[in-house]
Amino acid sequence: MGEFNMEDMPLPALFEQAQKIHLTATDSGDVDQEVVRKGCKALEKCDEMISKLGLFSTNETKEDISTTNLKYLLVPYYLGELTEKVAQDDRMQILKASQAKLKEFISFCEAMELVPEEELQTSAPDGPNSLVDRRALKIARFKRQRAAESKLLEIKERKERRGRSTKAAALSTPIEAGEEDVLDDDGEEEREAWFTTISLAVCKAFDLLEMLKKEEEMLRAFKERQSKDGNKEFYQDVLDDRAKRAEAWHRDAAARVQYTRPAEPITCATFAQDVLEGRASVSQMHEHKHQPLIFGPASLVGGNPTSERERMAAQVFQPSHRLPTMSIEEAGLKEMEIMNTWQERNVKLMEEANSAWYKESRKPGPPEEDDEDDDAAQDKARAWDDWKDDNPRGAGNKKLTPCG
What we know:
Elements: H1 11-27, H2 33-53, H3 75-83, H4 91-111, H5 117-123, H6 131-172, H7 180-183, H8 187-229, H9 231-260, H10 269-276, H11 298-302, H12 308-316, H13 328-353, H14 356-359, H15 367-390
Helix pairs in contact: 1-2, 1-3, 2-3, 3-4, 4-8, 6-8, 8-9
């Protein structure tokens, strides 16, 4: 941030510089404390000048405030948010100063009818203070904050589009003297943007005020405990509490280790659903049996029917189709078992086929028998050849030939 002289600057320029410092401090977490203090001084100077000029009055409403002066309503909010970021040894003083400026901003917005009715009801002393009401209020506040941010983004985009259209029109058609203000007449849009910014600031101010109140309560309790027991005893209690938490965590880890071991896979979807919903444990997996569904009254489903009337009633409530006797997982396991048995059998057959005794030829018989068999085969082959010579192919079909 550049150096600037606050005494010689007018209110608009001073507010612009302070707004830039506030934007830089809120966007980045680590900001130079000298810049933060300079921003606080600039905002305090703006607040003093606004009071001297009498820009606002409690008798006015939001419709009576001019569009140019609407932005100065944010000075107490900027000052309260920037004061909270000041680093100082006495944190309690910083918290009180920041809360005072935020309350001043909320009070003035309430007088201007810029605070929602539900916020006023909750902030009242006799208002609802239950957890459910506070949660509902936070949700409603968050929705208002999101709506305000979306509206500001929409106004910004709309203004940029209009600016591009104006530049394009200026390039195509020359603008005569006195027509510049007509092309840039967006007073209503600017007023809407400032009211939306104030609404967003109100939501953030309520959230920041609640956070500062909680921090103040914690700091006050810490100081009371510190003054009562002393630093040494207080720090020793903190260390003892941490040691007890660590011991409890390690003690519970021994009980949790049995659940970290991998369990056998669950093959039944029904049993897996029972485990997930807490009706069964993983250790009961081997004892689980899938039972088919039984329809009907609880008196019939829960026990075995004894009389003929109960048996007939049980048959009435049964479905018309046959129910499955096993689950899909059990059927798959059964098929897997059959497939494994078939593969083992094929492996055994292949081993037998490749064994030595299977490859051996048949035992040779006496040489006289082999010679006799060979002579008979040769005689049969010669007789067949002679017959084929005497009876050529097609010799018995002379009537079918053209010249027959």
